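ESCALATION

Customer reports they have been waiting on this structure for their group meeting. Please prioritize. Original submission:
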Amino acid sequence: MSSVQRNASPVPSALETDEDGPQRAGIQSVEVGFELLNALSEAPGALMLRDLAAAAGMSAAKAHRYLVSFQRMGLVVQDPVSTRYDLGPAALRLGLASLSRIDAVKLARERLDSLIAETGHTLAIAVWGNQGPTMVHWIEAPQAVPVTLRLGDVMPLLTSATGRCFAAFMGSEGRDAQRIGPMVRDELARLKKLPSSGLPLVDVPHTLADVQALLEETRRHGLARVVHSLLPGVGGFCAPVFDAQGRLALGLVVLGSVATLDTEWNSAPAAAVLRSARQLSADLGHRPAALRP
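Update from on-call: job pushed to the front of the queue and completed.
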């Protein structure tokens, strides 16, 4: 066999190449199937099969085969009534695991034990997820009144301290404002439809002017507060933590029963969570505007 013939039949390699250099060989079907999960993560809610398949760029029949496997794995769930598909518990666990490994979250978690000893109240960490401010860590004080919130819960922007914190410090300008603005208007519309019966919630905005005043008050105090607006009898504060680029990295939350939690703006719990958030921001490289050259 001539050298020309040998060069015409290259030996198969475990590496593929492209214009950027060598790449490891992968499994194409995994990459194709991931497009369905990616489409669900970017959608505002659950999707019908035809819409999900179209968003992923494949036929409904092909998408259905992948979805059957994803359902078995818990990555996707299907509502038996609407037949719509949404992300499942396994996807939530993966997302929470990823979020919890962000350095800012890790640093915040390491400080909660000392902070809970200082405040004596339940603490939480929230980050911005696909659907809004999302709880990623939770630690209850020994004497705390249980609050019906769970890891992975997405908090409302207008009636939770967490949501107000993100709306005030993340959505004041640029692309974030364009994203948060429609969410605020949708939430206002939902609040107007709430039934008037039952225990009334207070400190709830009803107009865009109310929202603007609320967010300005939040920025003025440097943290967000709610009293009775998320749940009757519950109050809380959320302080913003910023990264080195000045972006909102997470919210540090303290909450509890208004019978035991001092909800005044200058209260000890508010001061403790704000001080801890500012120290954490500094440790992440954030410099307040007044200190920047």
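Sent to customer with the following note: The chain is about 45% helix and 15% strand.
Escalation resolved.
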